[in-house]
Amino acid sequence: MAEKRRRVVITGLGAVTPLGTDFPASWRSLIRGESGLGISGRAEAEALPWRITGEVRGFDPLGFMDSRELRRVDRFVRMALGATLEAVKDASLEVDRDTMVLIGSSRGGISGIEDALVGRITGGRSFSAYLMPSTTVSMAASYVSMRLGLFGYGMGISSACASGAIAIGEAFRLISTGYGDVAVAGGAESPICMTCVEGYGRMGVLSKGSDYTASRPFDSERDGFVLSEGASVVILEERQSALNRGARIYAEIRGYSNITSPVSQTAPSLEGEVEVMMRALKEAGACASDVVCVNAHGTSTRAGDRVEAEAIRAVSGGGVAVTANKSMTGHMLAGSGAFEVATTAMGIYSGVVPPTINFEKTDDGEDLKVVTVATPLDAGVSITNSFGFGGINASLVLAGPAYK
């Protein structure tokens, strides 16, 4: 890592995903290879060819907010707060007013806006006075700050599908350069609505599969991603402060890069994906031979997976373990990037690479070591990738305490 930069560790994990309403449940499902995907519960989905989604079931925000508060905040904010409270508790952290908050979201409260508009048109219902503030992209970060009484650096980040990973990466940057000591960082998304489903569907990037096997990253039969909702938050701390308080350390963030590759609004860039991984490795003080696992962006689109496979091979030689969490979670947009940082950290802590389900064989020329059963993780560094529309690319490099 760069000289004079402070070391940053992950000490708390929280999640609300289609796999479970907290991180332990989500992790258990992930390790067992259990999908959280199924036929959408929204009635309007019946008229569309993209009916498989990843919806969070059993999530009860009344466990941490009252009914009045519930009505005033959008679903993506509720999930962000739930994941945050879990992460803070998991870290055994007493937050102070200087704690920083960075939470990303690609679409903010888009489903809440659509529901309000449909209610207005079909039922004559007036808009809530809280519709505009509660659906703002930055409200997840703002509301977490309000609930926890935080006055530190705060930001809501919207960088397409990379928003959650970038929020964590920027929090890492702030701590490593001495701007703060502790950060709450992650991503949240609630995009399952007609606008998003048909919008992505008409782009040709959603799967038309009929069951959970619709999401099949890197598989030769893939035909698009499965849209999902969810949130994940991690606690980042300056390493020495965490050690001084006896905190459990899941992993250390050793490097981070966020670059743009100005090629297309939607098409992935091989040059950009290679460059972002190489820059993150350079900051980590690591080389390609140190990489033992890549937690891939792996959305299950034809072009996206093909380019990422080529980029991984260019960086690592193709012999590293590759896992794709979206095979089970679907694409939670900002929630996925954050969740994949969390699962990479837990994988390092527990010494295991989660499987990729629904994978049978790659296309010709896309040969990768895709892990299909939970596999022991070798010592070294792990990369987690998150790529977004508009050529926004982010990679983080994580390692355990044994890596020097």
Description:
By secondary structure, the protein is an alpha/beta fold. The protein folds into two domains: 8-244, Peroxisomal Thiolase, Chain A, domain 1, CATH 3.40.47.10; 255-399, Thiolase/Chalcone synthase (Peroxisomal Thiolase, Chain A, domain 1, 3-Layer(aba) Sandwich), CATH 3.40.47. It contains 13 helices and 15 strands. It has helices at 23-32, 67-72, 75-90, 110-123, 131-135, 139-148, 163-176, 194-203, 239-244, 270-284, 302-316, 326-329, 334-350, and strands spanning 8-16, 38-39, 52-53, 100-104, 154-157, 182-189, 230-238, 251-260, 291-295, 321-323, 352-353, 369-370, 375-376, 381-388, 392-399. The strands form three sheets. The protein has an eleven-stranded mixed beta sheet with strand order 5-4-6-7-1-8-15-14-9-10-12, sandwiched between helices. It has a two-stranded antiparallel ribbon with strand order 2-3. Strands 11-13 form a two-stranded antiparallel ribbon. Helix 3 (75-90) crosses helix 6 (139-148), helix 7 (163-176) crosses helix 13 (334-350) and helix 10 packs across helix 11 (302-316). The chain is globular and about 60 Å long. It starts with 7 loop residues before the first strand and ends in a 5-residue tail after the last strand.
